[in-house]
Amino acid sequence: MNEIAPMEQFSEQPVVAACARAPVGLLAELTHRCPLQCPYCSNPLDLERVNTELMTAEWQDVMRQAAELGILQIHLSGGEPTVRKDLEDIVEVASKAGLYTNLITAGVTLTRDRLKRLKELGLDHVQLSIQDVDEANAEKISAYKNGLAKKRELGKWVREFDMPLTINAPIHRHNIENLPNIINFAVEMGAGRIEVANIQYYAWALKNRASLMPTRAQVLKSAEIVEDAKERLKGILVFDFVVPDYYAKTPKPCMGGWGRGIMNVTPQGRVLPCHAAESVPGLEFDNVKTKRLADIWLNGQAFQKYRGTSWMKEPCKSCPRAELDFGGCRCQAMAFTGDPTNTDPACKFSPYHAAFVAAAESESAEATPPAFVYRRLGGAKTDAAQ
Amino acid sequence: MNTQVTRTRVIIMPASKPALPAHIKLRHDAGRGRWHVLAPERVFEPDPIAIEILKRCDGAASVEEIAAELAKDYNAPLQEILADTISMLQELSDKGVVKA
């Protein structure tokens, strides 16, 4: 059975041919508000403020349009999506429109009653992120007290209501040694899936890269642990393993290829080909307030710009992997080489590859990593001013 | 956590009665002209045989009964179909797409 897996960032399988008509999934960043302050947050450094967020009716219209367009799955994300009091109203419309609804939550603000109501309204799946299974370390990473106990509580309710659960575990140098316990935690919580997701270095994570990067030896060890656990937990826990591409030889087919399978809507309604796309200059982002989703998907300048392979230059242009990895990630090419049309520095054919690997190796070798720059409104600026 | 029941891998047998869990959705997508299986953060495209098997996974029919029906419909040897059906359902069960 073939699988269309736009969220899966590492795959040696050729990506299934693009359905030009519509993306498979839509990531709805309902808000950038979040009680946690994890230093690897994928939200942009310039967080959007509450008074600029789309209204309930606007999100509901996005859901209806998504279903009409042919989108299959909605990932309700943030920030923390449950801080929006109208989450139920949005889920209800999405579910009625026939969309598969996935709630991506940190699990510290959701009550039992709300979860029950969300299930009744048709919520299909819960993805719960954890920072670590060591309470003190989890508090240090998230700058939030008592989070783990609240997550355990949520896990209990998820089991009570017989809802499917994925544990999302972002992995970095501060928790990679706890991976066996993190996997055990997912089993205890009754999860059917776990994402062992090494941090991808964009936005806040890029800012904190020197604090977070694990060593190559740690990553190799973690891959072994995952392989063993996969075999041991076959039929119990499904694994997704994402390695940090700093130690890769070929880049990931980021987003399954630009504008091929996923669209992302920000709290303000801007529609992006990926959540980090605003870091790439020269792109014009349309807004759901002024244009239809289908029009944006098919014709939007930001989607057309790096769609397919015609934008490529060497070494991508003549590369046999051009339609497997699509030159990797435009945002990473921009961040590391200053030119988004360069091949991703994760690629061994990139002239920047050696410097890219060296950065990870030297940062991860530091005995004492720098302190975190925590994710908060204005946090990145405060840090720069110091 | 002491109320937790230890989970074990489901092994598909001829007498197993497979079904799709509530959160797994077999849907026909008219726009794309194909079937999809919607699963947590995954979309599968089942091949024609998998579609025929999945449509029959109603929690009432046994694997043996499903295979017998397919053997008749496709005029194929039962033992072969049964073996293929079991191996496909085992794979799907390991992926969390069917329960039995």
List the helices and strands and how they pair.
The complex is a heterodimer of chains A (386) and B (100).
Chain A: E1 2-4, E2 25-29, H1 56-69, E3 73-77, H2 87-96, E4 100-105, H3 112-120, E5 125-129, H4 135-142, H5 147-160, E6 165-171, H6 179-188, E7 193-198, H7 203-207, H8 209-212, H9 216-232, E8 238-242, E9 262-265, E10 271-272, H10 293-299, H11 301-305, H12 322-325, H13 330-337, H14 353-365, H15 379-385
Parallel strand pairs in A: 2-3, 2-9, 3-4, 4-5, 5-6, 6-7, 7-8
Antiparallel strand pairs in A: 9-10
Helix pairs in contact in A: 1-2
Chain B: E1 25-29, E2 34-39, E3 42-45, H1 48-55, H2 63-73, H3 78-94
Antiparallel strand pairs in B: 1-2, 2-3
Task: Provide structural commentary.
The complex is a heterodimer of chains A (386) and B (100). Helices cover 35% and strands 12% of the residues of chain A. Chain A starts with a strand and ends with a helix. With 386 residues, chain A is of the alpha/beta class. By secondary structure, chain B is of the alpha+beta class. Helix content of chain B is 36%, strand content 15%. Chain B is built from 3 helices and 3 strands, in the order E-E-E-H-H-H. Chain B has helices at 48-55, 63-73, 78-94, and strands spanning 25-29, 34-39, 42-45. In chain B, strands 1-2-3 form a 3-stranded antiparallel beta sheet, with helices on one face. In chain B, helix 2 (63-73) packs across helix 3 (78-94). Chain B is globular and about 35 Å long.
Let me know the number of strands of chain B.
3
Secondary-structure element string of chain A: EEHEHEHEHHEHEHHHEEEHHHHHH
Tell me, what's the shape of chain A? globular
In this structure, how is the largest beta sheet of chain A organized? 9 strands, mixed
In which order are the strands of the major sheet of chain B placed? 1-2-3
Question: Low-confidence parts of chain A lasting 5 or more residues at pLDDT below 50?
Answer: 5-19
Strand content of chain B: 15-25%
- Our count of helices of chain A gives 15
Mean pLDDT of chain A: 91
Radius of gyration of chain A: 20 Å
Category by helix and strand content of chain A: alpha/beta
Please state the CA-atom Rg of chain B, rounded to the nearest Å: 14 Å
> What would you call the quaternary organization?
heterodimer
Helix content of chain A: 25-40%
Can you count the beta strands of chain A? 10
Uncertain stretches of chain B: none
Strand order of the largest sheet of chain A: 8-7-6-5-4-3-2-9-10
Order of helices and strands of chain B: EEEHHH
SSE-based structural type of chain B: alpha+beta
Largest sheet of chain B, in brief, is: 3 strands, antiparallel
